[in-house]
Amino acid sequence: MLAFLTAVPFVAAVAAAIASRVDRRAPGFVMLAASLLAAAMLLSQWGEVTDGATVEWVTSWVPSLEWTVALRLDGLSMLFGLLITGIGALIAWYGTGYFGADARNGRFFTTLLIFQGGMLVAVLADDFALLYVGWEVTSVSSFALIGFAHDRAEARQAAQHALLVTIAGGLAMLVGLIMLGVLTDTWRVSELTSRGVLGIDATLATVMFLLVAVGAFTKSAQFPFHGWLPGAMAAPTPVSAYLHSATMVKLGVYLVARLQPSLGDLEAWGIVLPAVGGFTMLYAAFMAVREVDLKRVLAFSTVSALGSMIMLAGLGTTHALTALAITVIAHACYKAALFMTAGTIDHETGTRDRLALGGLRHSMPLLAVSAGLAAVSMAGLPPAMGFLQKETALAASFEEPEAWLLMAAVAAFGALTLVAAVAAGVAPFFGARRDTPEPPHEGPPSLWAPVAVLAVLGVVLGVVLGVAVTGPLTPFISAIVSASAGEPYEAHLALWEGVNPVLLASVAAITAGLVLARFHRALPGIPWLRANSTAAMDGVLNGMTGLADRIERLAQPGSLPLYLAIALAAAVLPVLVLVVLANPINGLDLDADPLTVAIALVVALGAYAAARSATRLRSIAALGATGYGMTLLFLRFGGPDLAMTQVLVETLTVVLFIFAFRYLPITHETRDEHTRRHHVGGVVVAAVAGVAMTGVTILLATHERSYHLRAFFERASLPEAHGANVVNTILVDFRAMDTMGEITVLAVAAVGIVALLRITGREPASAAADSSRVLRTAARGLLPLLVVFSIFLLVRGHNEPGGGFVAGLVAATGVTLYAIAYDARIARRLLRVAPRSLIAAGLLVALGAGAFAMASGLAPLTGMWVDVSLPGGEQIPVGTPLIFEVGVFLVVLGVASALATALLEER
Amino acid sequence: MTDVLGNTLNLQYELLLPEIILAITAVVVLTLDAFKKELRVGYNSLPFVSVLGLVGAAVATLLLLDNRGNFALLIELDDFTTFFRLLFIGTAAVLIIGSYEYIERHVSHVGEFFALILLSTVGAIYMAAARDLLTAYLAVEVLSFSLYVAVSLAKNDPRSGEAALKYVLLGGVASAMLLYGLSLLYGVAGSTQYAEISEALAAGTGDVTLPLLLGLVLIVGGLGFKAAAVPFHNYAPDAYEGAPLPVTMYLSATSKAATFALILRWFAGPLLPAVDDWAWMLAAIAVATMVIGNLVALQQHNIKRLLAYSSISQVGYMLMAVTALAPDTGVATSGAVLVHMVGYLVTNLVVFVGVIHFYNKTGKEEISDFRGLAQTNPYLALTLTAGLFSLAGMPLLAGFFTKFILFQAVASADYLWLVIVGVVASTVSLYYYLQVIKQMYLYEPLVPGRWRLSATGYLTTGVLFFFMVAIGIWGAPLYEVADAAAGAIFFV
Q: What is the ipTM for the molecules in this complex?
């Protein structure tokens, strides 16, 4: 039943959207029917609920987390459900008159129905997730409804303000609810009621309560979050009447009433809720009488009434909860009625300025009577519900420790509310007739009849509850109070309880109100602070946007060096801190060998000069110094293979750099203030990185390590790979697959670079026309030497320092030298074949070497060896890794030659 | 077959079938593109063949559903791998189907583009599937290099080249950091195998703490860059803005999810014993990311940059959950990360496909260009709104369910303060998502007149929209699957 009930509005929303295509007036009637149907479904459970039973519907949601989707109907839910559906029906009726045949009816009523569905879900939900879902559905649909008249900037602003505040509050509530779920290990509200929260840590419980309270305060527009509600008056009146007085804003009240049984024992509950609620009640009641716009008067008076409800929930006694139930009913009846009245007046006269209105009783008699009745209830005069509301609230205050303070506050609230009631519900109809933008006249029944229904209801309910003490409604009030108190309770209500302090306070409030009401037209003149929460909100938003702007301009200007500096600094700073903490210098046995120190100085000076020099050529030369210094260091520490490779790569790199930079401007950049600042930043980051990495290196070098891979290679190199040079056997045998990948990458890179250079379509240049004769002669003499040397390196590589990679580089050096001395074309001719053919051949040879093993059923590139007898009778092992080595040699030679000659030809 | 250390290697190539299919498809697409004239095929054959390959890979994945085991100690085939295989294959399919019109018009070298997407999907899958540090690193680079190139492929947009340059240079630095960190980790643990690292760290003595910490700092830095977490995020907005829209989408979807797959594999697996050493780093980065990402998003005017910052902030939420990994609650927490990741992915794809189709029609990408979309294309406006609300974590949409699970898991792991930061950040995020929604619904269009999406536009957004709502309302199946996948990566 409950699942169907919550589905009704959503189904109707779809129906309304479809109906709007048939008839523009239809969506309103769809909503009317749906609301009546839902109300009837609720009333069908009347008997069970008033007997104190509950109706439940549970289904599993996420089984492994034991999350359910649960709906539960008790007195409290019934109360709100009836408000939502009953007033929903009247609003729908009113809306049909208010909007007429407006083209946007479909959209409006669809949204309103979705809102109604969200409300029903929220008040029927028995688990936190579902409660939150309903809660946020109402926030979002409220946004759409406030922004409905979006051609006005004010409406757009108000819609956004309302959404941000309520959703922020909703998220706070969500955190609170998650905490609640995690701490109490249940996600069901009803289980929480029976468990309570007294077992959990007091601080956590307080934090959790405050988060939930923020959710309730934002939704129910409590100070200081109240600003969105008066702003929301930009919405069409049916929305104000429905969302912003009768239903949505009461969700916060519903939430605290719902949680009262479980959280009510917290100390903070009894302080925060009465304090915030009480202050809001008085402050907003005062603000209400200062307003001139009818809807804003009612809005502030709504905020004030919500404050009184929050206060009563905070007091938490059964009397206070009884007063809360009465207040909710009374307020829904009279406030919705008066909102509709304001809307009708606006609709028929074109203004809502209460100072500009008067004497409307002549032209709108039926509305005047209805509004008058509603105002009686709002004013708290007997025998209407409003009177009962004030009486019960005063009675609840009377039994508190701070009775007089509370009673005075409630009485003042009553008096000011009476003034607001006169200003909004009575004054426009009496006094002298005034000119309005449009001539006033009585609207169609839909514009006054719903007002009449609610106004009459407010009086009838008051009489039934107050006079017939054991009447049919009292068990319902008992059920509501029982649900919000968490224990069975029998309510006793009466309009006349004899002469007591409560009655005296009530009379005093009415008298004061009536006196004050005589001057209600003068009240807007009272000076008051200009500050309001809308301005504060805008301030916060602007502040955040400004901050965002500053961050973006500071850290996100699109500069690559800056990004690099930030990322490096972020990673290296923690490293530096860790290194400093570990103090790598401590206990370090420095054995400074003068030669090594000298080399290190060369390296450092080279790096410094490269960064400092103003021209590119000098930077390249300085980098070269660093590189050759590294070569010496490798040599000094026993890495001849590494040193050899390094010196060749360094040489070729310098040459390629010079080729590539020939046509760039000689100097790096202009030296203005901006770049100098950049340099300083760069120096700092580099220094931090350098120091940190040095520290890391020292720390790690002094650390114990295991060398099992090194041991393996030293052990296996000669017997398994037939080579004494471990570096080489790793490259061409043990990890030949990696080398295969590397030479492939080299080949691809070279082809890519040459293709990029050719893409310009420029004719290759001949560079050597003016090169020196000495160089030519030297090149001619050196080339054979280099070629022989490279073959020597290739052959000895397996057992001595050398190998295909170095050999290829040496040969390529010769080719490059020739290209500089003569011409790229002539150098290429020297090779007999095009460099790219060399590359391809090298790759094929390497692959072929690997294929031998595959043909024998072994994994690719497994080394295969045979012993070959030399003529001298000596046996030497020959194997596929040697062939592979030749492939490497060819690829490296091809790549280096291709790059050098292609760059040289670039104009 | 055995390796040099005497481990027996299992070389069952069929375990790699989905990726083999993807790689072959990439080659076929390249060939088709190169010989378009000779073969007399049009542009549409490229996306068609690509999708065909993706479908084949998906089928292969499903056929391998019950196969468990590893390939040569390098690739692990478990529920986690299967989860990400399907996720990445699906994302690539959505990208191609949802944006092939855009690609034809605004991307240069279309053949390479499709091939790169397919190959990077392989890289992404192996980031999730690797069980060895070096394999994982290679997978990272396969993905990264594909993306460096893809970012540069926008036709007639000078921002594209600049974006690619920034991306590749900073990416190179990040890779170096990562590799250095991994080397240190190897030094400490004596192995590159996840399982052995886990054992070594669990048995670790006090004197390895410092190298381990140093390694972790560098690993976190490198991963932070790959995931675009603050303060390693600077390149992301520029790269996102300059890249062609589908690549932006891919960066924010697959690239991010793959990084998190890797993060989960590492931090819930081999690195979990060292949780006390890294939790503070991730917490700091998570907070910075949530705060800065959401704050700076506030003043963006370009939808791509807005979504860039939005995806940065989503990284913060997920990092927050990784921080909260602990041996006892870890499975639930990493399950929550997976759930959130799927929700984020689906939602983000909805928004991006929507924006791509908006661009196809209008050629514009400023937020103010979206004004009045509710009147000119109500379907697209609704789709985008739902997507943005889902990103903000609104109920009935995937974003709510997944964020709820995520926050709940983090709160259960006693990181309540992180949840509070996350919620405040979410509130801020709502504001900037709202700016777009406001433009669509509360302003009048500059150029009135209705227009429609293409058929594939309706198809992709429709399917994604369905999933977004389905996850939001009935996320239980997703949760079960994610939980099973998360269970596979823990060693303790």
A: 0.84
